[in-house]
Each structure stands twice: as structure tokens, then as C-alpha cells.
From TrEMBL:
Alphabetized InterPro entries for the sequence: EcsC
Domain of life: Bacteria
UniProt-recorded name of the protein: EcsC family protein
Originating organism: Niastella soli
A Pfam family: EcsC
């Protein structure tokens, strides 16, 4: 019978192949349509959205750093996964409740879901990083968290590029600039916005906003949690030469 680690390595290999898969016809068409829409939006609007998301993410990143404890005890992969699964369940249910509440509140309360959901997502990623034994006080680990965020919420083409950047992170991170302002914020905000726009727009519609908000947030957190788990499994496997 295969050990837990062997089963996880097999699961990781399947996930890695999925991350490297080239965009299909539907993905390319969807991305093409979204790019055309983005081209119609004035550059000043893009710049304003980039600044807003940049400041929002920076605030959450540095705030969560002080509210997340680094894990002192090194656990086995299986025990860490079990704790992570419980964290994902808690955050998933919290996000679903938040989505239902803001979705039921009409347009203006629905708009408040955007920053609230980002806060929940980033805090979950900090929790998961700490559980797997990575220090969230380390600037380079916070950049890795941003890469996980992109990996979960990007087009197939951009996702592939992000994944390749994350491979062998311990080595590649040595060349990172020490200033988070040099992070590529424009593609980050645009890919994220393009990914969730369609689903979240329905949340603003009266009557159906609450159930849509709950379901969408539930699924987004579930996907983010699984992506983070696989991303840290990749770090675990890289360090063991697997």
C-alpha cells in the first residue's frame, strides 16, 4: 500500500500537468473577449484600479503578517494537510456567509464584498503558509503568497507563466527585489478582475444576489485553498528532490 506522501506526490504530478496545460479554444476565446473589453476601458481607469488593488492587497498583506503566528512545531505532511483542510472549511463557510449577506444588501453592500473577500483570501493563505512551516514575516514568502493568489485566479496562459515562476522557489527567490512596490501589480489586478467579474456581477442582482454570493464565495475559497495546498506540496517535494 502506498504511503500518504507517495499518494500526495502522485496528486501533485497531476496538478502540475494541469498548471502547464496550454489554453484550450474556449479559454483563448474568453480571454480574447475580455482583452477587447479591457482595451475599451480608459487607461486612467486601469491605473486607478491598479492603485486601489495594490494598496488594498498591501494593507492586508502587512496587517495579516502581525495577526498570523508562525508555526513553531514541524508536523508531518499528513498532519499539516488535516489542519489545512479544517482551516479551508472555516474560511470557506465564512466567505459564503459574507457573500450571502452582502449579496442580499443590494448594489452598494454588494460592492463591499470585493475588499472583504480579498481580506479573507489573503488571511487564509497566511494561515496555510504558517501551518506548512513557512514564516509569513519573510517578505519573499509574502510574494509567494501573491503568486498562489494569481495561480488560483488567472487565465490559463497567465497561470502557466506564474506556475513556472513558482517552480524551485527557494532558489529563484534569492533574486527577488527587496521592495514589494516592484511587484507586477497591473497584470495581477487585471487577471483577478477578469477571472471573477462574470460570477460576481450576478451577486449585484436583487433577489438572487444572496444565494449567488454564497455559492461563488464558497467555490472561490475552495479553489484557493486547494491551490495553496498544492503550491506548498510543491515546495515540500522540491526540497526533497522528488
Amino acid at each position: 500500500m502506498a504511503t500518504y506522501e507517495e499518494v500526495m506526490v502522485q496528486e501533485l504530478q497531476v496538478w502540475q500537468r494541469k498548471m502547464l496545460r496550454k489554453p484550450g479554444i474556449f479559454n483563448r476565446l474568453s480571454k480574447s473577449v475580455q482583452d477587447r473589453i479591457n482595451n475599451l476601458i480608459p487607461e486612467k481607469v486601469h491605473q486607478a484600479i491598479t492603485v486601489i488593488i495594490k494598496q488594498m492587497i498591501r494593507g492586508v498583506l502587512f496587517g495579516a503578517k502581525w495577526t498570523t503566528r508562525d508555526k513553531n512545531q514541524v508536523l508531518s505532511l499528513e498532519k499539516s494537510d488535516n489542519i489545512v483542510a479544517e482551516k479551508i472549511r472555516i474560511y470557506r463557510n465564512t466567505a459564503a456567509a459574507e457573500g450571502a449577506l452582502t449579496g442580499a444588501g443590494g448594489l452598494w453592500l454588494g460592492m463591499a464584498d470585493f475588499p472583504l473577500l480579498i481580506t479573507i483570501k489573503i488571511k487564509l493563505l497566511f494561515e496555510i503558509a504558517a501551518i506548512y512551516g513557512f514564516s509569513v514575516t519573510d517578505y519573499k514568502e509574502r510574494v509567494y503568497i501573491l503568486h498562489i493568489f494569481q495561480l488560483a485566479f488567472s487565465s490559463a496562459k497567465h497561470r502557466r507563466n506564474v506556475f513556472l515562476t513558482m517552480k524551485d522557489w527557494d532558489e529563484k527567490s534569492k533574486d527577488l527585489p527587496e521592495d514589494i512596490n516592484q511587484f507586477e501589480w497591473r497584470p495581477f489586478q487585471q487577471e483577478y478582475r477578469d477571472y471573477i467579474d462574470l460570477a460576481k456581477m450576478a451577486q449585484l442582482i436583487p433577489v438572487i444576489g444572496a444565494p449567488v454570493g454564497a455559492v461563488v464565495n464558497y467555490r472561490l475559497i475552495r479553489k484557493l485553498g486547494f491551490t495553496a495546498k498544492m503550491a506548498y506540496h510543491m515546495r515540500w517535494a522540491d526540497r526533497r528532490g522528488l
